[in-house]
Automatic annotation (TrEMBL):
Keyword Acyltransferase in annotation: no
Coiled coil: none
Entry's localization field: Membrane
Keywords: Membrane, Transferase, Transmembrane, Transmembrane helix
Similarity remark: Belongs to the bacterial sugar transferase family.
Membrane topology: Multi-pass membrane protein
Protein name: TIGR03013 family PEP-CTERM/XrtA system glycosyltransferase
Protein source organism: Caldimonas mangrovi
Domain Bacterial sugar transferase, chain residue ranges per copy: 256-439
Transmembrane segments: 29-51, 63-82, 94-116, 261-282
Length: 445
């Protein structure tokens, strides 16, 4: 934001005529223009997925391509804003110079941040546990740059340490965790052991470290922070009961409903030409209804009719057996393949949002037969029905499209994160990231 503002102010100041009152940089609209430029660029960076820190990492080439795309589009939009605020001004020159200063500023800032991080170093972590979970935590700490940590070593519990690599340091249980924290400058402790009963964990030592101010995370808390999901394999009902979150008060419900009405109405108006064109090409492409109605499970386990543009042949389930949709599904029509990839088939659900059956953001609604099956195989599956289902959701922007029980299990972990941490800010974030998913066909079906 500061780079964007500074770039515009410097570029406009260069065009001021000395002694001439009311130069471009001194106009009353300049502050609004600079703020608009910053807002446009931030939104564009978000829309192309450059702020999706918890999603799949991008390669350097992809980052550069998307950044250049955002800058080109941002330059054009800013040029239009500049012409409207200061007509007759050398808008092209100002925008060009602003973009050069912006690129220079971003490079300088990135290099400075990198140098500071190298000088300060990353936090030092002690992992309690030596099993598969401990190894998974160590891998995440090494690969996820957003939560990068230096693993000092592992403190053994009752789990086997057979999978440990020779370069991984395992401390002796004869040493206390308090001593290790003081000796090695440990900044954080992560307990990566599922079984915490039977004396395997030195709870008195962990309590002493916590009281002394050392942060301690369990597996569920770690993965919630690191991956923005709640792992169900190691999840206990007590963690859900006592942890913070699950805000469903009257204020939250009123704010979410207002947000749903405003956004769905606006999107219906903006997408109406696309919806009319889609209805026409569906009618021309294959026989059958334009709108497909299917029973789905919503808030509180109550069923409702979910609306979608028909993307499959009318005999897709002629035997009456519900099936998962798969990639390259033979039942999908030519038009259906396109509207599924671009998510256009979901647009009629905006009507369900206006009616109050769905929300703009929430877990995707499933069919009753699938819900019955998944409740038997996935722990805490019913928790997703404590909020309204959504047109888009946290699982949709964080996990690629899947069509199996295992995929549903992984998506449920993201849905649990949303249910636990749902807020207006998270709803806005999901909508912004949905733009990136649609534009670049991430998780396409």
């Amino acid at each position: 934001m500061l780079c964007f503002l500074a770039a515009m102010f410097i570029a406009s100041a260069l065009r001021m005529v000395p002694g001439e009152e009311g130069g471009l940089a001194m106009q009353s609209g300049m502050m609004w223009l600079a703020g608009g430029f910053a807002a446009v660029m931030l939104l564009l960076y978000s829309f192309v997925g450059l702020y999706r820190s918890g999603a799949k990492p991008m390669g350097l080439g992809t980052i550069i391509q998307r950044a250049l795309l955002a800058i080109v589009v941002g330059a054009y939009v800013t040029y239009l804003l500049l012409e409207s605020v200061a007509g007759g001004s050398p808008g092209g020159y100002v925008v060009g110079v602003a973009m050069l200063y912006l690129l220079t500023g971003l490079v300088v800032v990135r290099v400075a941040v990198f140098m500071v991080q190298k000088a300060v170093g990353v936090p030092r972590v002690l992992i309690v546990g030596t099993g598969a979970d401990a190894q998974g935590v160590a891998r995440d700490l090494a690969t996820l740059r957003r939560i990068e940590r230096h693993v000092v070593g592992f403190y053994p519990t009752s789990e086997s340490a057979e999978g440990m690599r020779p370069d991984q340091r395992v401390f002796s249980r004869e040493r206390s965790i308090e001593e290790l924290v003081a000796e090695h400058g440990i900044d954080e402790i992560i307990v990566a052991a599922r079984e915490q009963r039977g004396g395997g964990l030195p709870m008195d030592q962990l309590l002493a470290c916590r009281i002394a101010g050392t942060p301690i995370l369990d597996l569920a808390g770690f993965y919630e922070r690191a991956r923005a999901e709640v792992p169900i394999d190691s999840l206990k009902a007590s963690w859900l009961i006592y942890s913070q979150g699950f805000v469903q008060g009257p204020a939250r419900k009123a704010a979410k409903r207002a947000f749903d009405v405003v956004t769905s109405a606006a999107l219906l108006v903006l997408s109406s030409p696309i919806m009319l064109l889609t209805a026409l090409v569906i009618r021309l492409d294959s026989p059958g209804p334009i709108i497909y109605r299917q029973e789905r499970v919503g808030l509180g386990g109550r069923s409702f009719m979910c609306l979608k543009f028909r993307s499959m042949t009318v005999d897709a389930e002629k035997d009456g057996v519900a099936r998962w949709a798969t990639q390259n599904d033979a039942r999908v029509t030519r038009v259906g393949a396109f509207i599924r990839k671009t998510r256009i088939d979901e647009l009629p659900q905006l009507l369900s949002v206006l009616r109050g059956e769905m929300s703009m953001v929430g877990p995707r609604p499933e069919r009753p037969s699938f819900v019955k099956q998944l409740k038997e195989q996935i722990p805490f599956y019913d928790l997703r029905h404590s909020v309204k289902p959504g047109v888009t959701g946290w699982a949709q922007v964080r996990y690629s499209y899947g069509a199996s029980v295992e995929d549903a299990r992984r998506k449920h972990q993201y849905d649990l994160y949303y249910v636990k941490n749902n807020s207006l800010f998270l709803d806005v974030l999901v909508l912004i990231e949905t733009v990136s998913v649609v534009l670049f066909r991430e998780g396409s079906r």
